[in-house]
Amino acid sequence: MSKPGDFEAVRKDIVGILKQKPYDDGSIGPVLVRLAWHASGTYCKDSDTGGSNGAGMRYEAEGGDPANAGLQHARVFLEPIKEKHSWITYSDLWTLAGVVAIKAMGGPDIAWKAGRSDFADETLLPPRGRLPDGSQAQDHLRHIFYRMGFNDQEIVALSGAHNLGRCHADRSGFEGAWVNNPTRFSNQYFKLLLKLKWEKKQLNRDGAPWQWVARSAGMDDDDEPLMMLPTDFSLTQDAEFRPWVEKYAEDQELFFRDFSNVFAKLIELGVYRDEDGIARFSHLEKGKAEY
Ligand code: ZEM
């Protein structure tokens, strides 16, 4: 047990659990980043519902959404931290873990503020279907991310998170990592999007979705190929998105700065703090949310 409010102690303990040899590429960092993102990415600006506040993934209705498959591992990994620092809310812990993981994997500092509450009751959970579907393309990305209040540049910057981690056949159906070193945050994703010769491939498995695959220089034919989702690839096929892919491929510093800003914005969606610093659902004050 640490002193309530000692977020430095929590940050240290999160860093301490990131390296887990047998798990994926040796780090739970990427799946923690995905947890922070999916906790936040349900936000809708028009109805002012969803978002990280409330930690709705504790409930089956949100946690069991097929879009959240695999994130139970991330939540279980964080359980010892929650037990040790029982004063922290899940909604603060899940967003903080993403920010700490990005930094520890070589990414930028990202502003993070405490104060989220865990009081979502099941009637306040956002409906399923608000998270993006990787098998679609740029129109879908705009539909999903404009709903959260992001613009085209921010959509491309956020997509750069796919420098981290991998797809799992038993979670999303897609398979493989986007970059050669998926536990190191960089702008490699943008470079590879532009540089490699991507080919459409349906993986050899019943019901597998098609994805883009390629091998980078130095990879053997029997190495697992690198991959891109249809949504990732669509960024290069769109007149508004493509210039940002090119800028971020050329300038890692610019990407880090823009990513830091947009991730900080993502984890604040739907979070409003009273003078006491505690975040409340704004729609609770208005009465029950209408979805
Ligand atoms: Zn992802 N993402 N994502 N993403 N994502 C996956 C994995 C990861 C999309 C998507 O369909 C998928 C953002 C945006 C979008 C991460 C972070 C962020 C996977 C693989 C899919 C299918 C899941 C699996 O099988 O385990 C789509 C369509 C997006 C729209 C642009 C944003 C924004 C992110 C953070 C800012 C991360 C870190 C992973 C890797 C997770 C892991 O377990 O390794």
Question: How is the topology of this model organized?
Answer:
Layout: H1 7-18, H2 29-40, H3 60-63, H4 71-84, H5 90-104, H6 138-148, H7 152-159, E1 166-167, E2 176-177, H8 188-195, E3 199-202, E4 210-214, E5 226-228, H9 230-234, H10 242-250, H11 252-266, E6 272-273, E7 279-280, H12 282-286
Antiparallel strand pairs: 1-2, 3-4, 4-5, 6-7
Helix pairs in contact: 1-5, 2-4, 2-5, 8-10, 10-11
Bound molecules: 20-OXO-protoporphyrin IX containing ZN(II).
What does this structure look like?
This protein has 291 residues and is mainly alpha-helical. The protein folds into two domains: 7-131 and 264-286, Peroxidase, domain 1 (Orthogonal Bundle), CATH 1.10.520.10; 138-260, Orthogonal Bundle (Peroxidase, domain 2). The chain has twelve helices and seven strands. The strands form three sheets. It has a three-stranded antiparallel beta sheet with strand order 3-4-5. It has a two-stranded antiparallel ribbon with strand order 1-2. Strand 3 and strand 4 form a beta hairpin. Helix 1 crosses helix 5 and helix 10 (242-250) crosses helix 11. The longest helix has 15 residues, at 90-104. The radius of gyration is 19 Å and the shape is globular. Bound molecules: 20-OXO-protoporphyrin IX containing ZN(II). 20-OXO-protoporphyrin IX containing ZN(II) is lined by residues 30-31, 33-34, 37, 70, 132, 134, 141, 158-159, 161-162, 164-168, 171-172, 174, 229, 231, 263. The site of 20-OXO-protoporphyrin IX containing ZN(II) has 24 residues, from helix 2, helix 7 and strand 1.
